[in-house]
Amino acid sequence: MDPVLATVVAAVAGLCVGSFLNVVIHRLPKMLERGWEEQCAELRGETVAPAAAYNLVVPRSACPSCGARITALQNIPVVSWLALGGRCAGCKAPISARYPAVEVLGGLLAAAAIWRFGATPQGLAACALLWSLLALTMIDFDTQLLPDGITLPLVWGGLIVNLWSTFAPLGDAVIGAVAGYLSLWSIYWLFKLIRGKEGMGYGDFKLLAALGAWLGWQLLPVIVLLSSVVGAAIGIALIVFKGRDHSVPLAFGPYLAIAGAIALFFGQTLIKTYYP
Questions:
Q1: Measured in whole angstroms, how far is the alpha carbon of residue 107 from the centre of its chain?
Q2: What is d(CA 97, CA 125) in angstroms, rounded to the nearest whole number?
Q3: What is the 3-state secondary structure (H, E, C) of 48-72?
Q4: Which of 74, 77, 83, 80 is nearest to 12 (CA)?
Q5: Among residues 78, 70, 72, 62, which one has the least CA distance to residue 15?
Q6: Is the pTM of the predicted complex or chain greater than 0.85?
Q7: CB 207 within 8 A of CB 220
Q8: What is the Cα–Cα distance from 78 to 191, expressed in whole angstroms?
Q9: pLDDT single digits (tens) 2-39
Q10: Which of 106, 115, 107 minimizes the C-alpha distance to 4?
Q11: 57 Cβ neighbours under 8 A, 6+ residues apart
Q12: What sign has the CA pseudo-torsion 256, 111, 57, 89?
């Protein structure tokens, strides 16, 4: 397939996937909370009444303000938001600009992956990784959670993809998964022993393990360094421009995810540049 056509097709597909990612970002944390509440009730010996189905498919998407169902024509990525003027068709309540932003990011990431790796299994795998990182980034920003439902399949997905050395030899991927997890796990416990409190969550360990599984152990130092630089830049920007209290903890997952995406595209170039 012509590279330009493949990139355009990927961008359109990415817009549609971005629309689904909005559902994942909104609903998955709520699904986890419902599960935790039901488990706590069972441990207390309480009878749990059957709850209405709530997952990534049902119920249908609706306006959170008036409850009006969102029709298919109102759910076209980006176009519907622009046509509606960023407001609900029923009650005219504002619709967050983050919804089309996630859709656009989904399209741009897919286009970049196919342009870089081609319309190949490697390109498709890169799309899957980038979309997963996008969902994790937004969920962690919102809730400071990195759901196992995404991070653990991402670890196994990286190992499976690299059975064919798609991004790294399988041995490097296995070592990357183990080293990624243990490195942050060690820092977590060292920080807790010194300061007496947690410095990061277990989801961060699993996310770095996933990135190691996808990209190999050699890129782990690059990812950690990039995540620190990105985190410092964003943290300073939030303090300066939004007046965020510097004592309020920041989610580290988004910075790992952003660093992982950069390493996917430019990691080998960075290694060759600084470690010829």
A1: 14
A2: 28
A3: CCCCCCCCCCCCCCECCCCCCECCC
A4: 77
A5: 78
A6: yes
A7: no
A8: 43
A9: 899 999 999 999 999 999 999 999 999 999 999 888 88
A10: 115
A11: none
A12: positive
Q: What angle do CA 172, 174, 179 make, to 5 degrees?
A: 90
Sequence-distant (≥ 6) Cβ neighbours of residue 169 within 8 angstroms = 162, 216
Which residues 6+ apart lie within 8 Å of 225 measured at CB?
259
Identify the H or E element spanning 14.
helix 3-43
pLDDT truncated to tens, each residue of the chain (276 aa)?
789 999 999 999 999 999 999 999 999 999 999 988 888 888 888 877 777 888 999 888 888 888 888 888 899 999 999 999 999 988 989 999 999 999 999 999 999 999 999 999 999 999 999 999 999 999 999 999 999 999 999 999 999 999 999 999 999 999 999 999 999 999 888 888 888 877 788 899 999 999 999 999 999 999 999 998 988 888 777 777 766 665 566 788 999 999 999 999 998 888 877 665
Q: What is the DSSP string of 116-175?
A: HH-SSHHHHHHHHHHHHHHHHHHHHHHHS---HHHHHHHHHHHHHHGGGTSSS-HHHHHH
Q: Cα(84)–Cα(197) distance, rounded to whole angstroms? A: 47
Closest residue by Cα to residue 126 from 214, 203, 209: 214
At 246 the pLDDT is: 56
The CA distance from 180 to 175, in Å, is 8
Q: Which residues of 14-46 are buried (b: 16+ CB within 10 A; e: fewer)?
A: bbbbbbbbbebbbbbbeebeeeeeeeeeeeeee
Q: CB under 8 Å, gap of 24 or more: what pairs does 266-275 form?
A: 267/215, 267/219, 267/222, 267/223, 268/219, 270/222, 271/218, 271/219, 271/222
